[in-house]
Amino acid sequence: MKLSIVIPNRNMAGTIGKCVKAALASEYADFEVVVVDDNSSDGSLEALTGLPCKVISLRENAGAAKARNVGAGNSSGEILFFTDADCILQKDTLSKIKKRLQHEGPGAVIGGTYTLRPFDRDFFSRFQSVFINYSETKNAAGPDYIATHAMGIHSADFKKSGGFPHPFLPMLEDVEFSHRIKREGSRLIMCPDITVQHIFNFSFLRSISNAFRKSKFWVMYSVANKDLTADSGCASSELKFNAISFVAMLSLLMMWRFAEAAPILYAMPVILILNIISSRRLIRAFHKAGGAAFAFNAVLYWIFIYPIPVGAGAICGLLGRLIKR
To answer: pTM value?
Structure first.
């Protein structure tokens, strides 16, 4: 059974070569690699020189959803595997996808996730990889969506679905796709043992910028989809409770500042403890991935810094949705 790996690329010259080489090193025998370059201007095509892969160049920037659809339409495999240009496939990723899809049959969409430890080992990249791995696999028995950094689907099923929405909100075409095909009868199956290693290269600024953008677009989509409170992947109940807890503690500090009533602050430790209890499984994941020191710093970042861009993004998303309406 032939498998086609579809990779959209937009100005990822620093990673696309590593991504394709890792795919080509797969232990699975019958596959092709299809790269759709989304009008890059950074030398991405040069990074692919000499690599045995099919390259399709778009004449203008159309977005990742369109690039994936074009790639799928120019693939010859019976199975499609979608991943990103900054993801490193493991040697057994394709064989596990094929085996599970063959077992499940038509109508199944198989998902994988990021490895706990990313390709780059700086703090913010490690934080993000653990957070996404945990969020995407904690409800493995009934995932809300399958992410396109590791998505396997029968090509006939993908063609029947109509593909990813385009144009659409950035970063969320896989969520809309998953919700739509699930309503139409497809089965979403998350396999935590199917992984790709992500190259984040996250600094502090890139980390908070990513949190802001994801929160903004997710809120815009969720308000329209009427599932704002759903426990959905990276928009997890832990993330939402964490943001609410931060706002509550900040509000108490402001009330204490203006009212000068010390008893107001007594509620802060209670809120903090409840937040830690809510995030206890994520905290264990931090510890598993990097030990006590990493987990301690990750918890501090999670509780006292990360909610700021998440909350700001949520507010902008709500305003954006209101303006659109």
So the answer is: 0.95
Dihedral-angle region of residue 6 (phi above 0 means left; psi in -120 to 50 means alpha; beta otherwise): beta
Assigned token pair, 205: 């600024």
* Domains of the chain: residue spans and CATH: 3-202 (3.90.550.10), 237-324 (no CATH)
Residue that has been written with the tokens 């502090």 in this structure? 204
pLDDT category of residue 119 using cuts at 50, 70 and 90: very high
Q: What is the dihedral of CA 285, 291, 292, 297, to 10 degrees?
A: -70
**For residue 274, is it left (φ>0), alpha (ψ between -120 and 50) or beta?**
alpha
Q: Which two tokens stand for residue 102?
A: 């063959």
Q: Which residue do the tokens 């990750």 mark?
A: 298
Contact of 68 with 6, CB cutoff 8 Å: yes
271: tokens are: 């809120």
The C-alpha angle with vertex 183 and arms to 179 and 184, in degrees rounded to 5, equals 120
Q: Of 145, 116, 142, which Cα lies nearest the Cα of 284?
A: 116
Beta bridge partners of 5: 33, 81
